[in-house]
Amino acid sequence: MTLRSIIWYELRSRPWAVLSNSLAILLGVAALVAIRHITVYSEQEISQQLSHLGANILVLPPEATLQDYYAADKNGGTIPEEHVSEIYLAGLTGVEQVSPRLNVPANLGGLDVTLTGILPQSELEAQTAWQTTTLFTTPKAHEGCTKAKLGTADLESPDSLVTHRAIQNLKANELVLGADIAERSAFSAGDTVELMGQSFTILGVLPTTGTVDDSRAFAHLHTVQDASGSGPVCNAIEVIGCCEDAAGDLVPQLRKLLPNSKVVTISQVVQTQVGVNRLMANTSWFVLVVLVVVGGTSLAGAIAANVRERRREIGTLMALGATPQFVQRLFLGKALILGLSAGTLGCIVGLTTAVLAGPAWAGVTVSALPVTSLLAVVMATSLAILSAWWPARQAAALDPCLCFQEV
Amino acid sequence: MIKLENVTKHYSRRGETITALRCEQLTILTGEYVAIIGPSGSGKTTLLSLLGGMLSPTTGKVWLGETSVYDLPTSARSEHRSQQLGFVFQTFNLVPYLTALQNVQIPLCLLGQAAADQERRASEMLSRFGLADRLHHRPSEMSVGQQQRVALARTLVNDPKIILADEPTGNLDPESREVVLDAFDAAHQEGRTIIMVTHDPVAANRATRSLTLRAGELTEADTDLQADQSPQRLSA
Ligand SMILES: Nc1ncnc2c1ncn2[C@@H]1O[C@H](COP(=O)(O)OP(=O)(O)OP(=O)(O)O)[C@@H](O)[C@H]1O
Ligand SMILES: [Mg+2]
After folding, report:
1. E strand spans, A248-329
2. Distance from Cα B216 to the centre of ligand 1, integer Å
3. Residue B197 maps to which CATH number?
4. Whole-angstrom distance, CA of residue B218 vs CA of residue A266
C-alpha cells in the first residue's frame, strides 16, 4: 500500500460525493472546450468563406436567419427554382453566374452525405433561351470591372465548381464528389455508385476547399428534386458577382426582383458569423471566470469538509507515524485526481458536444484540437490543486491528539 | 526508559488556564507494564499524548532514552512514533474505507516498506489474532471484538518498543477484553513497555505497576488502590 492507494481507496468508497465535488469543474471545462473548439473552427470557416465566396450573394427563403445560413441551406425552407431564370432574365449588371442549390441527406456506400443538386450552366442558358426571344438576355458586364469575362471553356472541368461555383455540363446520372467524401468512400472518377435508389457515374472529384463542399456530393438539380420528391424548388441560389463592387450594387436590385426571398451578401453572413464568434469568445472568458470561481470554491469547500470529517482519522494516521507532509500530500493527491479526472471527462464531454453540435450551432465541422484540450485538462488540474492547498495545509496542521477523541 | 522531568501541561481557553498535568519526576523503565488510573478529566489522555510525542508540555522535558522528545522537529517525532510506538484506542480508530489487511499495512506503509513485504507481514499479524479469513473485510463488516483485534495487529505490526493504550478494553465484552489483555501480557513477556490508561480494575490488575492521576497530579498508587478506584477512595 502507498499514499496513492490510500487516496484511491478513499475516493472509491464515495464515488457520488467525488462526482458532485468535481461536477462544477467538469461542466466548466466541458463548456470551455466546446466553445473554444467551435470558435476556432468557425474562425477558420470564415476566412475560407471569405476567400472562396467573397463576391457572392445568397438568395434564401425568407425564414432563414443569417446565423444559421448553413442550416437554412441544408434543412430549411425552400424557394421556387424559377427564381433562377427570373434573375437570369432580369439582365442585372455584374452577374457572372447563378447557381441554385438543393441539399438533401443521402447515403453513399454506408456514408451519410449531403447530396447537393446544382444546375449546369449549359441548361441554364437553354432554359432561359426559350423563355425569351431577344438576344439581350445574358447578364450585362459590370462597367469598369477589370475581371475577365468567363467563357464556357472555363467551366468545363468539374473543378470549376470550386473555382467558379458553377459547372458547364452535368448529366442527369452524373455525380461530382467533394474531396472528403471521395477519400472516405474511396470512390474515384469513372466509378458507378448507388445513391437514393439511382445509379450514378462519378464525373470527377473536387479539390479540397476546406469548406462544407468537401463533404458533399453534387448531382443535377432535377435528379435530386425527383429523387427527393421536393418539386421544382431549391434551398438557396448563389448569385456570383464579378467583383465585390458589383455584389454590393446587386443586392437592392435582387431584393426588388424577389421580394419574397431574403437576399444577403456573403460578407453579411460572414459579418454575422464574426459577431457570433466575438460573442463566443467573450462567453468563453466568462465561462473561464465561472469555472475558476465556482469550480475552485466548490472543490476547496469539498476538500475542507473532507478534512473536517476525517479529523480523527488524520490524528490516527499521525499517531501511527504519518508526517504533516504526508497528510498534506494525501489531500493534495485527492485534489489532483479530482481535477485530472474532472478535466479529462469535461474535455471529452466538451469535445463531443462541439463535434455533434458544431454543424448545427455554427455550421462548422469540428475535430479535436489537442493543444486546447490538453491546456483545459492542465488548467483544471492546477485549479484543483490550488483550491485544495489551504484545506490540505490545515489538515497537515491538525493535532495528532485528535486520535484520542471519541466520535 | 521514559522519563518526565518537571513536566506541566496547561490549557488556556478564553483567558482561563487549566492545569491538565503536573509531574515533577516520573520514570518508566524499559519492559514495565504500567496502568494509569484516575477519574475522568484527571489528565490521563494528556499524559499519554505527552508520552506519545504528540503534545508539547508547557514546561519540562520528556525523555525517551537519551533523547529529549520535544527538542526534536515535528517530522522526527513522527518518525519516532513510526519506529518505536504502538497505539491502542478505545474506539479502535480503524480507517473505515480500508480492509483489515490494508489497515494493518498503514504503519508499514508509513515506514516505506515494499508492498509485498507489507502484505506478508500484515497478514501474518492478522493470522496471529485469528483473522486469517477476514483479511479483506472492512471494519463495518466485522464485529467489535474483531475490530479491536485488527487494531491490535496494527499496533504490533511495526514491532514497537512502547505500547500506549487509552482505555483499550472500554468498549469490549469480557471475552474480547481477555484477548487484548492476553496480547498485552505477551507483549510484556517479549520485553515491550506498556502504558495503559484504564478505568477497568481487571485490566489494571494485570499491570505490574499502577499510577494514579488526580486533577493532573501523578502519584504512585498503593497496592490496594489499583484494583479499586471508587471516587471516595480516590478523593480521600
Ligand atoms: N484541547 C484541550 N483544550 C482545553 N482543555 C483540554 C484539552 N484537552 C483536555 N483538556 C482538559 O484537560 C483536562 C484533562 O483532560 P484529559 O482528556 O487528559 O482527561 P482524561 O483523564 O483522559 O479524561 P477521560 O477519562 O474522560 O478520558 C480536562 O480537564 C480537560 O477538560
Ligand atoms: Mg481520556
Report:
1. 262-265
2. 10
3. 3.40.50.300
4. 94
Query: ipTM for the complex?
Result: 0.91
Query: Mind listing the pLDDT tens digit for each residue in A37-90?
Result: 888 888 777 766 666 655 578 888 888 765 555 544 555 688 999 898 888 888
Residues B45-65 pLDDT 10s:
999 999 999 999 999 999 999
What residue spans define the domains of chain A? 3-46+274-405, 62-260
Q: Is the separation of the CB atoms in A253 and A263 below 8 Å?
A: no
- Domain membership of residue B16 (yes or no) is yes
Output the pLDDT for position B69: 95
Q: Does the reported pTM lie above 0.80?
A: no
CA distances from A193 to A185, A201, A226 (A): 11, 6, 18
Q: With a CB-CB cutoff of 8 Å, which residues 118-147 of chain B face chain A?
A: 118
The Cα of A402 is separated from the nearest Cα of chain B by a number of Å equal to 10
- Asked whether B53 and B2 are in contact (CB, 8 A), the reply is no
pLDDT given at position B85: 96
Q: Which atom of ligand 1 is nearest to the CA of B9?
A: 12
CA distance B169 to chain A (A): 14
From A30, A49, A25, A29, select the one nearest A277 (Cα to Cα): A49
User: Is residue A189 a contact partner of residue A159, using CB atoms and an 8 Å limit?
Assistant: no
